[in-house]
């Protein structure tokens, strides 16, 4: 999550919850390295990064990081505050050269807008066409469910009195994503107190800590294919932005179509059967503890009456 200082390109998602979408503005910068002739001599990524920042002035990056470093090149990814200044950034850096202390050669810079990975209509249509064990007549077994990760918990909290402000709400999640069409089902796995045990029984690894997690994953299933497409189209290349009267933040959310049939009738039923088993086990455990306490109490009373 980053502090957001420019909201000029934000589009409304669900303003009553303070939620907007902000286009990503990222560039990929490759710096060609000279052959290392002297043993023990190395190029400082930090020094190269600082030189790029100086070249960029008066523009700045809100984030600049190394994404790959080899003997031949260093690749950086930079993020600008808005897409409007991308063209200027690219023209200011493209084909420029960097001179580093201790190296006679200049380092050539190549820059282009970064490709942000995101599934296409062809990806999900072909996936479900070719997938085995799916029935596209059934919900959850066709392109109808959006899988989201890294959503900040507090941004989806129910703000009404009596609700936990650190916990996301399925009601709020549903309201937000109904922006794109009728929602059939939503699920926030971290809200299920039995999920950890269900996953243990299924042999899968639990990836969140219920008490400490600041972000969550969610599944949103649409009734109509067109609504699913609308949602995926709107979320492509976007960050989630939260804005209130005082502050503004942006978060990188991960968006994909669900490939796990998480909200298929079959998997919902499986989880419910496991949940019912665990509830029954918990009840039996509580009954046993209660019986043992009663027996202990009776034993104590008998001992006292003997004395």
Give the arrangement of secondary structure elements.
Layout: E1 2-3, E2 11-14, E3 19-23, E4 26-32, H1 45-56, E5 63-69, E6 73-79, H2 86-93, E7 97-99, E8 106-113, H3 121-130, E9 145-152, H4 170-177, E10 183-187, H5 195-202, E11 215-222, H6 225-235, E12 238-243, E13 248-251, E14 254-257, H7 265-306
Antiparallel strand pairs: 1-13, 2-3, 3-12, 4-6, 4-8, 5-6, 7-8, 9-11, 9-14, 10-11, 12-13
Helix pairs in contact: 5-7
Short description:
The chain has seven helices and 14 strands.
Can you walk through the features of this model?
With 307 residues, the protein is of the alpha+beta class. It contains 7 helices and 14 strands. It has helices at 45-56, 86-93, 121-130, 170-177, 195-202, 225-235, 265-306, and strands spanning 2-3, 11-14, 19-23, 26-32, 63-69, 73-79, 97-99, 106-113, 145-152, 183-187, 215-222, 238-243, 248-251, 254-257. Strands 1-13-12-3-2 form a 5-stranded antiparallel β-sheet, covered by helices on one side. A 5-stranded antiparallel β-sheet has the order 5-6-4-8-7. A 4-stranded antiparallel β-sheet has the order 10-11-9-14, with helices on one face. Helix 5 packs across helix 7. The longest helix is centred in the last third of the chain and has 42 residues, at 265-306. The chain is elongated and about 95 Å long. Mean pLDDT is 87; it is low at 203-211.
